[in-house]
Amino acid sequence: MSTLNALRRKNASSDNATSNHTDATRLDMTATTNTPIEQTRWNGWGNVNINKKVSPHGAKLIKSHIGKTKKLKSVSLQQVLKTVPKSRLPKAITKLNIVSTDQEIRLRHARGQSFPDWIAMHSGDFEVFPDGVAFPESTSDVEQLLKLACEHDLIVIPFGGGTSVVGHINPQQGARPVLTVAMSQMDRLIDLDDESQIATFGAGTQGPAVEAQLDEHGYRLGHYPQSWELSTLGGWIAARSSGQQSLGYGRIEQMFAGGTLVTPQGVLEIADIPASSAGPDLREMMMGTEGRAGIFTEVKMRVQPQPEEELFKVAFLPNWEAGKAVLKQAVQNNVRLSMLRLSNAVETDAHLHLGTTPSQFLAISTYLKARGLSSDKVMLTYGFSGDKAQNKLAVTQFNKLLKQNGSVTGKITNIMGSVWAHGRFKFPYLRGTLWDKGIMVDTFETATNWSRIDEQMAQMQDAVKTSLADEGEEVMAFTHISHVYKQGASLYTTYFFRAAKDHAATLKRWQKIKHAASTSLAHGKATISHQHGVGRDHAPYLAAEKGALGLQVTHDMLKSLDPEQRMNPGVLLED
């Protein structure tokens, strides 16, 4: 990793590394860097020093649904490095000191975190690698890179934290060389407007670095997707992300105020105006473009003072209907919460198994049974964020709704809320633990109106559970509501299935499940994605939601900024 380390050392010694602003407009503060790429797994999720165990009775529960499993083989990093071909980039690009053609750097920027990505990383069949990876340090660097890309006919792929689960960052086979643009060097808080509460960041800033730098000044953004540990501001905006506490802090579209987007046609400055009736909103138009329009370099975010108090709690309710009633009543009556998350009965049982020791599971189960809850019980995780007086009022209001709907709370459930809060960004690590046991796991998500929630959940789960019936295979699936709105809510489904005899056959199983799940959503009444974006995996199903004319309008807008379609082709729209 010497090339990347050299790039980092150079960046660390540069006062203006992440901004075109003058020194007078920059903050005097200690740098907060992103997670070094050499500390992340090259073929899995997150920090190499972090693992999450799965309880024996949790694994046993899953296997009782899908059957006995067998682990797939995994290739070594050295084996894959031998397959990385010589770079096709022209000398005009490779001579830049911000561009690397190092084999391991190219490998580490070739794939994201989708299920097909995991199959590629563990089988060693990456198919295509970027020809080089650029690490720009300023907006002008990105301008230069896109100018050279146009001159030398390159494909350009923006790369944030590499956490995409729908194929956003994978280079495709083709005649044109591929340059991946990694934004990790643009990771600083550039400016803070206290009066307007607008913070300007480099778009490559990862979640922990965003909050650490804001915390020094008494502020918070409050955007906490499951990928928070690694994902970036630019990625959140490009994919229209939603955080775990979006009920209180808002989705990314409420936080993104404006910024700088570098396109093949020039630099688009999106003004951070609080509101406007001056035609279509460029800010809204550029969000969700997934690298097709250009690359965000500096972003202006609406921040707020740090809350005086944050609380996370867990309650159990008799059944799904009771839990759903609490959610709907709370959001439609404007109870001030930061999050609401309702697990259906199957997911509740799975969480109690996977997240506890046998003795803890017995204690919780005994307690809930004694309070009159049966196997239909559902788990509700909820949070409050604000000053103590606000929280006290909200807790009182919400407790009234819980009581009206037959909830069970107590010391045990309050402890579970704290446990969830402290471990909420570690759940993705379970994927690697289960992979090593031959248990394949993936997720998909959507959103729909309250009047369709139950029907949509049943359709999705039935489609997934029966998708491998032709092979005689069982699929375990369960769902939770993760975000709520007055109009409706999101549904997030997790499913487990057995690894097949080899990687290729396992990928085919996933493709069947993915198609069944996506088809169950492709009717225009539920979105193909509430928070993960479209990428390559969802692009074939987008027409059902947008319609032919909607796709044409989107295509024409993107082509106006990228007429040669060199920016991340095949993502969002099928080309």
Short summary of the structure?
The two termini are 35 Å apart.
Indicate the multimeric state. single chain
Provide the residue-averaged pLDDT: 93
CA-based gyration radius: 24 Å
Distance between the termini: 35 Å
Main sheet record: 6 strands, antiparallel
Question: What is the tally of helical segments?
Answer: 21
CATH topology of the domain at 2-15 and 27-57 and 76-182: Uridine Diphospho-n-acetylenolpyruvylglucosamine Reductase, domain 2
Structural class: alpha+beta
Strand percent estimate: 15-25%
Kindly provide the name of the CATH class of the domain at 2-15 and 27-57 and 76-182: Alpha Beta
User: What proportion of the residues is helical, as a percent range?
Assistant: 25-40%
Gross CATH architecture of the domain at 2-15 and 27-57 and 76-182: 2-Layer Sandwich
Number of extended strands: 17
- The fourth-level CATH homologous superfamily of the domain at 2-15 and 27-57 and 76-182 is Uridine Diphospho-n-acetylenolpyruvylglucosamine Reductase, domain 2
Order of strands in the sheet with the most strands?
12-14-13-16-17-15
**Overall 3D geometry?**
globular
Low-confidence segments, given as residue ranges, are: 1-33
Structural summary, described in words:
The chain is α+β, with helices and mostly antiparallel strands and 575 residues long. Among the domains are: 152 residues, Uridine Diphospho-n-acetylenolpyruvylglucosamine Reductase, domain 2; 117 residues, Uridine Diphospho-n-acetylenolpyruvylglucosamine Reductase, domain 3, CATH 3.30.465.10; 116 residues, Alpha-Beta Plaits, CATH 3.30.70.3450. It has a six-stranded antiparallel β-sheet. A five-stranded antiparallel β-sheet has the order 5-6-10-8-9. Helix 2 packs across helix 14, helix 6 runs antiparallel to helix 20 and helix 19 runs antiparallel to helix 20. The two termini are 35 Å apart.
